[in-house]
Amino acid sequence: MLKGKTALVTGSTSGIGLGIAIELAKQGANIVMNGFGDVEGPKAQIAALGVKVEYHGADMSKPAEIEAMMNFADEKFGGIDVLVNNAGIQFVSNIEDFPTERWDAIIAINLSSAFHTTRLAVPYMRKQNWGRIINVASAHGLVASAGKTAYVAAKHGIVGLTKSVALETATTGVTANAICPGWVLTPLVQKQIDDRAAREKITVEQATKELLQEKEPSLQFTTPEQLGGMAVFFCSPAADNVRGQAWASDGGWTAQ
Ligand code: NAD
To answer: Which InterPro entries match (predicted)?
Structure first.
């Protein structure tokens, strides 16, 4: 379905971003990867699907580096057809103790980076009258939790950004939608589980159970593959008129 198209997935060296990149590659899309940590392993995993893969290590908190990444993608593939804004970080603390530099970093990486990639990707998408912007928000883009002020603000912000971009492109073949996962067992969440286990002096297994019980009625994690499947749907002709939506895969979290 996406043969000959190019998808740029921010934060695709790990977790959900990698899962989405793999599912888009299975549909034939060439991939521009981004993110920190091990690059060669995930890159080989995607390349094994028979598509072209390029990597750019832009730091999503730095607008100039984001611009360089977008130019790099244009040079390599001629333009981005599918933009997945996925890179994100978390920090948990009550607001009075929240380090201001953590606030700035979360807003920059989880929200402002999507503004920069989108403003730079939309002209090409408009020109060819087809494009998909998929923002990885969160259940925390729809409801809040204590201790996550920056994350909740950024995720609500990206849902708003998604809606605005969807309206601006509503008469074109460009769509913008958000994916709102509940818990997904990635390094970002494993850290929260490990912190909980240490804080409450319980096993990691018990902490995992508690984490799910607290928010997620299904008591199950969503997988990166399932979220990749949702991204593939947003790219399909069936989703041509799905615009400005924030779709949850959260085991019932936000239905409560
Ligand atoms: P992860 O830690 O496995 O992956 C995060 C990715 O972002 C990595 O590739 C990392 O290198 C990259 N990244 C971090 N900071 C970056 C920066 N400054 N510049 C470029 N890349 C950077 O986490 P994940 O759980 O896969 O999270 C991916 C997205 O999904 C995030 O936006 C997160 O908020 C969102 N999300 C996660 C969950 C969950 O339960 N794991 C739930 C809802 C939403």
So the answer is: 3-OHbutyrate_DH, NAD(P)-bd_dom_sf, Sc_DH/Rdtase_CS, SDR, SDR_fam
Interval between CA 127 and ligand 1 midpoint (Å): 30
What is the ipTM for the molecules in this complex? 0.99
Report pTM.
Answer: 0.98
138 in ligand 1 pocket by Cβ < 6 Å?
yes
- The domain made up of 6-182+222-255 has a fold known as Rossmann fold (3.40.50)
Where exactly are the structural domains of the chain?
6-182+222-255
Which residue puts its alpha carbon closest to atom 3 of ligand 1?
15
Instruction: Out of 55, 151, 183, 221, pick the active-site residue.
Output: 151
The set of residues, in sequence order, having a beta carbon less than 8 Å from that of 246 and lying 6+ positions away, is 137, 141, 142, 159, 162, 177, 178, 179, 180
Active site residue 55: no
Pairing verdict, β 131-136 and 246-249: unpaired
